[in-house]
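Troubleshooting entry. Yesterday's outputs looked truncated, so today I'm pasting the complete records for two proteins to confirm everything comes through intact. If either block looks cut off, that's the bug. Protein one:
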Amino acid sequence: MAPIQKLTETLGFQFNDPDLLKSALIHRSYLHEHHECTLPDNERLEFLGDSILNYLVAAFLYEQYPQAGEGELTALRAALVQARTLAAFAREIDLGAFLLISKGEERSGARKRDALLADTFEALVAAIALDQGMDRARTFLLPFVHKAAERVAAGGGPADYKTRLQELVQGQLGITPRYQTVSIAGPDHQREFTVEVLIGDKRLGLGTGPSKQAAAMAAAAEALATLEENREEDRAV
C-alpha cells in the first residue's frame, strides 16, 4: 500500500480526521487479518457515498443540460455513476494503490478490480463530505464528472442514446440491440423499472427509471459508455 500522505497530496488538502480517510480505504477483508485495527471498514461510507454521488451528479446534469428531459437526465446519470465509470475516476488518482486489503485479495488482483475501485471511490467521496463538507466533495468530484459527461454525450449534449447505440452496433456488427425488462418495483404511483440492453446474448447495459422508456434510455447510455471505454482501452494497448 502506498503511504496515505501521497493520496492527500493528490487531493490537495489534509483531512481534519485522518482516520476517516483511512477508514474509506479499508476493505472488509483487511480486518479479517488485522484484528488490531480499531477502525471500521468502508462499507458504511460506501453506502453514504453512493447517495452523495447520485445527488451531486444529478444536480450537475440538471444545471449543465437545461433542455434535457427526465429520461435523458436519467440516462446520463446512469452512465456516470456506473461501476466502470467510477473505477476509471479511481484510477485517475491511483486509488487502488492505497487500499487496505487482505493478502488473499492482493493475490487475486483486487486493486485493479472495477467493483472494488468503484466502491472505494464512493467511500472516499463520503469521507470528504463528512470531513470537509459537501462543497469540497463537489469540487473534488465535478472535474471527473464533467469530462466523463462530455465523453458520454459526445456530439453536444444529451441525445437519443437508443438511436445512437443502434446506429453504432448495426454499423459495426450488423445486428440490432434488444431491450428486455428485468424487473418492476415500487407502488403504482412510484414505479421503478429496470431494463437491460442485449447485443446478441451479451448484456451491454443496465438502466433504471420511472418508466420503461427512461430505463431503456439509461441502459443504452451505459452501453455507449462501456463501448467507448473499451475503445479507449484498445487504443491504449
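Protein two, checking that the full record survives here as well:
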Amino acid sequence: MTGAVDFLHEAAEDAGPTGGGLDLGVRSPFQLFWRRLRTDRVALVAAGFIVFLVLVAVFAPQVVDLAGARPPNAPSKRYFTLGKVGVPSPTGPSSKNLFGVDPLGRDLFSRVVYGLRISLEIALLATGLSVLIGLVVGLFAGYYRGWVDTALSRLVDILLAFPVLLLALGIASACSLGNGCVGGLIKPGLSVVVAVIALINWTFIARIVRGQVLSVREREFVEAARSIGASNLRIMFREILPNLVAPLIVYTTLIIPQNILLEAALSYLGVGVRPPDPSLGKMLADATDVFDTAWWYMAFPGAALLLMVLAFNLLGDGLQDALNPRSARPR
C-alpha cells in the first residue's frame, strides 16, 4: 500500500504543480504503469513478438505439422545434392524444407522451432530459480544486516569473482558425466543447464534486492508494523516484498535474454543440451564447418537467437521506463 502511495506522489511530481491534467484520485498504480507502457510502441511490439514465440514453443508439434515439416530428429538422404567434387551436400530452403536441411538431412525449420522451445524452457526455469534464491538471500541480508549481511554478501562476492562462462563450463562439464551431480539429483541434460545458470545468476538478484531492502526497511510503514508486534518474517514478506515487485519485474525481464545466451554458449561449447535434442547454440557450433556451403544452417538459428534476445531486451527497457515514475512523461 505504501509503495502505491509513493508511486502516486512521484507521478504527481512529474505532472507538475497542477497535476498536468492527471486525475490521481481515480488512477491506480497499474493504470499509471499501463498509461506509460502503451505509448512505447517498441516495447509493445517486443511483447507481442515474445507472446508469439511462447505460443510457437508451446505448440511446437502443431506448428511443425502445420508447416508440413518433418520431425526434428528425422534424418533423410533424399535432400542432398552432389557438390562440386561429387560429395553429397545438404540442400537449402525450399518448399519442402522451409529453412533447408542440416548435414544429416534433418529439417532445419522443425529443429529451430524445437530449439526455441528448449531455449525458452531453460531460460524461464533458470530465471525463476535465480530470482527465488536471490530474493530470499537479498531479503535476509538487507533486513537483518550485521553478521548475516556480511556472511551472505561475502558469499556473493566469492561467486562473482569467478569468470561466469568458465565457472559454468566447469560445473556443466563435471555434472554432465556419469549420473550427474548431488547424488544424481541433477542429471545430465536440461537439469544440469538449468542448475548451472541458476547457481550463477542468483547473485545479481541478491545484490539488487539487498540494496532495495536496506532502503525500504527504514521507511515509516516498516516501523509501524514493527511497533504493533509484527514478526520479522511478516515484515519482510508482507511489508517489504510488495515494494520490490517493480524492480524484480524489470531485472527478471533483462536476465532472461542473458540466460538464453548462456544456454546457447554452453551448448555451443558442447556441455549444454545433449544431442539429439535441438539447441540453437549447438546448431551454430555445427554450422561453423559447413558455413561456406550451407549458409542457411547458421543463418536461421542465429537469426532466431538474435530476435528472441532482442525482443526480451526491448521489453525490459520498456518496462523499466513504465515502472519508473520519474521517467519522461509520454507524449
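Both blocks look complete. Sanity check on protein two: Confidence is low (pLDDT under 50) at residues 1-9, 11-24.
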